[in-house]
Write a structure and sequence with these properties.
This protein is of the alpha/beta class. 33% of the residues lie in helices and 21% in strands. The longest helix is centred in the C-terminal third of the chain and has 21 residues. InterPro entries: Methyltransf_Zn-bd_dom_put (IPR013630), Methyltransf_Zn-bd_dom_put_sf (IPR038576), MeTrfase_14 (IPR013691), SAM-dependent_MTases_sf (IPR029063).
Length: 409
């Protein structure tokens, strides 16, 4: 039964985490002339392993199909660019990453982060499987390999003498169906004294803040520090530091080293492991209750939108993120509620959202139509978006923030 066994430890998966029904691929934006063509939907049913507590989704589509022509470009978020630049400054100042180092980023996207190392004359290499996205990075002058990362690619790079002082991956771990191959590859690629940093949404935040919309088919797994620590140890790596950061509704940045490296393990690691246990992440009941919490949020959001429409008011969306497509499809929110959405990414403009077929326009459309309410789909960027759209206050417009509880401001 392929897909029903834990992708880390191999145990049979029987415990449900949440069932979000049938959903299309969240980044499969539709061209208007194909609006009446057949559209594929897949079960969005997440399980949790009762042995290692890895939360995971069955693989219905291969990464090759999902990421061949990818619609997500990191550089369209100003706050994300600032986050990347701060990270580069930290690594160069605190970890002596300099022009004698090699930095390799896995899932380097459009060069949003490596460009800042480039400015500091630090040698870089990007690995990005989406051809349309990697081309943008290459055009910026960032050397990029257009392949999926795993142990085989890492061995090839090592044979070429290209081992890294710093291996980093931001929001890529969730996208990897073969997590053991991925982590084994990082170990091969890393110099004996090198470090790994990975950022990923924190499972504890997902549960506490009911962030079910971060679940979609392009994400295969959802991680706690507890589980990441187990996976790294199984491959001869050790987490030596962890930071809690605000990105994507609450993420972790873990720092890892080779097991034989004598770098000290900081108190932050044990402190967070203890906190995760106290929060119930080693108790299967914590996971079993999540589905009912999700249903409550769905009812709250639908109640709010129905009331607004019953008052004769107009609602549009802001953003066309993958998470927004999970939210809209699970809640059954289509053009009867949301007239259109807008996005700064020209790649998405002029297309339709998968499943709901809500049209995507340039953000200038909001000034033209003056909607009463704007539903913020990338709620993790709500401050940035409300600042960009502060002009809707001129006609008494309001924002609707759906997660973790419906908020109208």
């Amino acid at each position: 039964m392929k897909g029903y066994y834990c992708r880390f430890c191999g145990e049979l998966l029987t415990q449900s985490f949440v069932d979000l029904g049938m959903s299309p691929l969240s980044n499969s934006y539709i061209k208007p002339d194909l609006a009446h063509a057949k559209e594929s939907f897949y079960p969005l049913h997440v399980h949790v392993c009762e042995h290692c507590y890895l939360v995971q989704l069955e693989e219905f589509e291969t990464p090759d199909n999902i990421f061949q022509d990818y619609a997500y470009f990191s550089s369209y978020s100003e706050s994300w660019l600032q986050h990347a630049e701060r990270y580069v400054n930290k690594m160069t100042s605190e970890y002596q990453i300099n022009r004698n180092s090699l930095v390799v980023e896995i899932a380097s996207n459009d060069g949003y982060l490596l460009q800042y190392f480039n400015k500091n004359e630090v040698p870089v290499l990007g690995i990005e499987p989406a051809k349309n996205v990697s081309k943008v990075a290459i055009d910026k002058g960032i050397p990029t390999i257009t392949e999926f990362f795993g142990k085989n690619l890492a061995l090839q790079l090592r044979e070429q003498g290209r081992q890294a002082d710093l291996v980093l991956g931001n929001n890529v771990l969730a996208h990897v169906p073969s997590v053991n191959d991925f982590v084994a590859g990082m170990k091969v690629l890393l110099k004996s004294s090198g470090i790994i940093t990975l950022e990923f949404p924190h499972l504890l935040k997902l549960i506490e803040q009911i962030q079910f919309d971060t679940i979609y088919h392009e994400h295969f797994s959802y991680f706690s520090l507890t589980t990441v620590d187990k996976i790294f140890r199984a491959h001869g790596l050790r987490v030596f530091d962890v930071e809690e950061i605000t990105t994507h509704g609450g993420s972790l940045r873990v720092y890892a080293k080779h097991e034989g490296d004598n770098r000290p393990i900081k108190h932050s690691v044990q402190e967070l492991l203890i906190r995760e246990e106290s929060a119930g992440l080693l108790n299967i009941e914590t996971y079993a209750k999540f589905g009912e919490q999700v249903k409550r949020v769905k009812r709250e959001l639908l109640t709010c939108l129905i009331q607004v429409k019953d008052e004769g008011k107009s609602i549009v969306g802001y953003g066309a993120p993958a998470k927004g497509n999970t939210l809209l499809n699970y809640c059954g929110i289509a053009r009867d509620f949301i007239e259109y959405t807008v996005d700064r990414n020209p790649y998405k403009q002029g297309t339709l959202l998968p499943g709901t077929h809500i049209p995507i326009y340039d953000p200038a459309q909001i000034k033209l139509t003056r909607p009463d309410y704007v539903l913020i789909l990338p709620w993790n960027l709500k401050e940035e978006i409300m600042d960009q759209l502060s002009f809707i206050r001129n006609w008494s417009g309001k924002f609707i923030i759906p997660i973790p509880n419906v908020l109208v401001v």
